[in-house]
């Protein structure tokens, strides 16, 4: 539903800025779903679900003041935007980069979500999260050249 509308918007952008048309012709724009996009979506979605479930459980209301909860809600909303953009990026490959701008809030949101959990659960979840993120980033380091083949943007 969103993809056809976005295609017309980009055509208009190409009329205004013809130098950016090479991104469309380069095969990086609309394309098949790549393994990197799927794995990134799965990781971001799992992190979002974990943060959402731990910030909105019965323990979090006791451990977080109202101002901090409002900040966590904003970060969670931005993280949800990252999930939605990543879903669209399954077919619109160029949007993978935009996801990074919204998923950066996980750096603060994950520790906040762990902080509200009781100590027993925190001790259980912390090594699991660290191990999974370590494996994820090692996979990215090893296989990233075959996944993305990203070329830097050049301003016209």
Description:
The chain is mainly alpha-helical and 156 residues long. Helix content is 74%, strand content 0%. The protein contains 8 helices and no strands. The longest helix is centred in the last third of the chain and has 29 residues. It is elongated and about 55 Å long. The model has no long low-confidence stretch (mean pLDDT 78).
Please outline the helices and strands:
Layout: H1 2-16, H2 21-25, H3 35-55, H4 60-63, H5 66-88, H6 96-103, H7 106-115, H8 119-147
Outline of the structure:
With 156 residues, the chain is mainly alpha-helical. It folds into 2 domains: 1-30, no CATH class; 32-147, no CATH class.
Determine Rg (CA atoms, Å): 19 Å
Q: Kindly estimate the percentage of residues that lie in beta strands according to DSSP.
A: under 5%
Share of residues in helices:
over 70%
Low-confidence stretches: none
* Count of the separate structural domains: 2
Count the DSSP helices: 8
Structural class: mainly alpha
Reported for the largest beta sheet, the result is: none
Total strand count, please? Answer: 0
Mean pLDDT: 78
Which features characterize this protein?
74% helix; single chain; elongated; mainly alpha; 156 residues; 2 domains
């Amino acid at each position: 539903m969103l993809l056809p509308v976005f295609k017309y918007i980009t055509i208009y952008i190409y009329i205004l800025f013809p130098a950016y048309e090479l991104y469309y012709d380069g095969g990086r724009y609309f394309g098949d779903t790549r393994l990197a996009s799927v794995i990134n979506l799965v990781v971001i979605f799992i992190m979002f679900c974990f943060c959402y479930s731990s910030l909105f459980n019965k323990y979090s209301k006791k451990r977080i003041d109202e101002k901090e909860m409002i900040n966590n809600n904003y970060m969670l909303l931005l993280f949800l935007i990252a999930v939605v953009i990543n879903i669209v990026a399954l077919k619109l490959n160029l949007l993978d980069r935009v996801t990074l701008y919204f998923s950066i809030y996980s750096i603060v949101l994950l520790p906040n979500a762990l902080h509200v959990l009781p100590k027993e659960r925190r001790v259980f979840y912390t090594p699991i999260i660290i191990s999974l993120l370590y494996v994820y980033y090692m996979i990215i380091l090893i296989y990233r050249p075959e996944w993305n083949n990203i070329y830097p943007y050049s301003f016209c």
